[in-house]
Recover the amino acids of this structure.
């Protein structure tokens, strides 16, 4: 039993926190925006929330929409692995929401939501309470740090970055890679699925390998994957790694990438710069631990996290929580059936959720969902691969439409061109 | 004020859900995916209302209904080469494609904000009028075949590249005029379409 004192306290805390329905949060905060008409409050201005706010207004401009976001500028995750390799800047991934909000008549509030009073149908911000008829939560992810022995949530990321939310962590990992000696070892650990962005870790391996090939060719990246195989686009990544980085499926000592499946991180020695899977200890000059994840903090506080204590279960037609009425959860925090935890899926879920919230507010019949997912991963600075799919709801589950979608047949430069174009449209949808 | 028509059913659903019971949520009556439901998700790659900000993706706002349907049908069959559209088009029925065609046809085309080489654009106009205008009317504006005017330069280059390499086969009547064009001619044509607002 690996449980230390801290994780025990956390578990107890989580267990009591889960009783939100039994002990509802009751607010006494004063309303800062008196509600007159029908109002939807959206929490989180990322890939899901910004789009939900916008498309509710597109579907019915008579519905008041309040979008609450903590940060004045938003740094998008897709393509942020390119920043690690020095071929993209974080500024290129940064957008603001002001123009989009003004264009669509959305009331934009920069604040942090600290609680949800589901009984009174109010969200509580640091400035006060905001009432809603419908609430959309799109808070992204939180980390299950407590599952890694020796991981201190406050101090460990400053030494061993996760870089799993684009921002200062991305720059820290980049800085460490640049400072590393030629011949150094980069260690990366991947959590068991589901986690944000299934192909993301493997794109990161590719681009770190590219950086090493160009600048530190005596170095190596050693990967411990908690999963039994590469989670997404497996054959394409292996092909790309063989083509560009001397990867050998049969002999991990060859080439720049050593990939090891079924290797789950259990313990971290931060001072000794080593990872531990219970069988062996591996030292790294640079270590990137991608921690296991769960729904964003406000989803936990609102009591919409499901029985697994990790993710939010939602009705697949409306994205309304199966646990708390009038709270909808979209994006990485929710379980969207066959839809992956991707930016494009969040964008698509937001639009489905928006249309059906408006239908419900107007007393009209709900509309059968139709989703798309499109996701690109870079193998080098010039070549990329893609996966796509069309999704519908069937018998309460979101499924991929059979015989549609799938992987790009190969890695190539055209995929990379489309990846850049995709990113421009994704960011423009959120910011205009 | 809300959910006037079906308060009881909604309340029952939610109660069932709150109790964590196994009451199926699939009994919700839903109408088939509407044109907006089908089309909004395309905007992730093609831009809000189908007006693309990304350089390699075409704007699909204001496209002629029939042209949209032919494009999707040919993506579906593989007749038109693509990176991703073939895979996605297979996910839709002919009726759904018709609905999306009508949805995007109703949206206003916004020309890409870019600059053209005016000298080349002039040459391009002469070439267009001589060889292309008969089928790609009004300078191939949105609503006409191909909808080349006002599209991003990068997209036009990709498209012309597909035709030139033989990867994409146009209609038979396009073969002769296309074969007669030099690389400089194509560059001029692209600049002409880029110059169109």
């Amino acid at each position: 039993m690996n449980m230390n004192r801290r994780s025990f306290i956390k578990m107890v805390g989580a267990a009591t926190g889960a009783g939100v329905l039994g002990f509802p949060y009751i607010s006494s905060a004063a309303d800062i925006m008196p509600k007159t008409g029908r109002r939807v409050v959206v929490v989180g201005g990322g890939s899901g929330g910004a789009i939900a706010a916008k498309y509710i207004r597109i579907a019915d401009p008579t519905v008041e929409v309040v979008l609450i976001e903590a940060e004045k500028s938003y740094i998008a995750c897709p393509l942020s692995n390119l920043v690690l390799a020095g071929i993209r800047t974080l500024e290129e991934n940064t957008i603001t929401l002001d123009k989009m909000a003004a264009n669509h008549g959305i009331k934009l509030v920069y604040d942090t939501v600290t609680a949800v009073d589901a009984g009174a149908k109010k969200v509580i911000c640091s400035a006060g309470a905001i009432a809603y008829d419908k609430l959309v939560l799109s808070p992204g992810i939180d980390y299950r740090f407590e599952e890694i022995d020796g991981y201190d949530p406050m101090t460990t990321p400053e030494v061993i970055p996760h870089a799993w939310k684009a921002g200062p962590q991305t720059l820290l990992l980049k800085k460490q890679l640049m400072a590393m000696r030629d011949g150094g070892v980069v260690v990366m650990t991947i959590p068991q699925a589901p986690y944000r962005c299934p192909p993301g870790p493997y794109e990161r391996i590719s681009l770190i390998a590219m950086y090493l090939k160009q600048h530190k060719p005596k170095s190596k990246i050693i990967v411990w994957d908690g999963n039994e195989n590469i989670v997404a686009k497996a054959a394409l990544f292996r092909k790309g790694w063989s083509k560009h980085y001397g990867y050998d499926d049969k002999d991990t000592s060859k080439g720049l990438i050593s990939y090891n499946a079924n290797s789950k991180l259990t313990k971290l020695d931060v001072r000794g710069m080593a990872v531990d899977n219970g069988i062996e200890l591996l030292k790294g000059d640079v270590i990137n631990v991608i921690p296991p994840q769960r729904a964003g903090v406000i989803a936990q506080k609102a009591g919409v996290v499901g029985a697994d204590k990790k993710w939010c279960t939602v009705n697949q037609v409306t994205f309304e929580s199966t646990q708390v009425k009038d709270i909808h959860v979209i994006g990485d925090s929710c379980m969207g059936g066959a839809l992956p935890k991707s930016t494009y899926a969040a964008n698509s879920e937001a639009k489905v959720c928006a249309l059906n919230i408006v239908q419900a507010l107007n007393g009209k019949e709900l509309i059968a969902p139709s989703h798309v997912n499109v996701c690109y991963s870079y193998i080098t600075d010039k070549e990329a691969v893609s996966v796509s799919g069309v999704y519908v709801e069937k018998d309460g589950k979101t499924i991929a439409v059979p015989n549609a979608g799938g992987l790009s047949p190969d890695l190539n430069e055209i995929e990379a061109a489309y990846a850049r174009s995709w990113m421009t449209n994704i960011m423009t949808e959120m910011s205009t | 004020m809300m959910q006037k028509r079906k308060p009881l059913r909604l309340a029952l659903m939610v109660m069932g859900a709150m109790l964590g019971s196994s009451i199926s949520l699939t009994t919700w009556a839903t109408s088939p995916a509407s044109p907006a439901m089908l089309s909004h998700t395309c905007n992730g790659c093609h831009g809000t209302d189908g007006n693309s900000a990304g350089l390699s993706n075409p704007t699909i706002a204001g496209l002629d209904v029939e042209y949209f349907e032919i494009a999707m049908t040919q993506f579906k069959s593989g007749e038109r080469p693509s990176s991703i559209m073939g895979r996605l088009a297979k996910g839709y029925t002919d009726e759904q494609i018709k609905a999306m065609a009508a949805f995007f046809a109703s949206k206003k085309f916004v020309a890409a904000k870019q600059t053209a080489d005016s000298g080349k654009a002039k040459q391009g106009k002469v070439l267009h009028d001589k060889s292309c205008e008969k089928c790609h009317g009004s300078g191939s504006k949105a609503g006409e075949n191909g909808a080349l005017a006002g599209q991003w330069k990068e997209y036009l280059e990709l498209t012309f590249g597909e035709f030139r390499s033989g990867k994409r086969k146009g209609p038979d009547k396009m073969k002769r005029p296309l074969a007669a064009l030099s690389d400089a001619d194509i560059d001029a044509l692209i600049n002409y379409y880029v110059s169109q607002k």
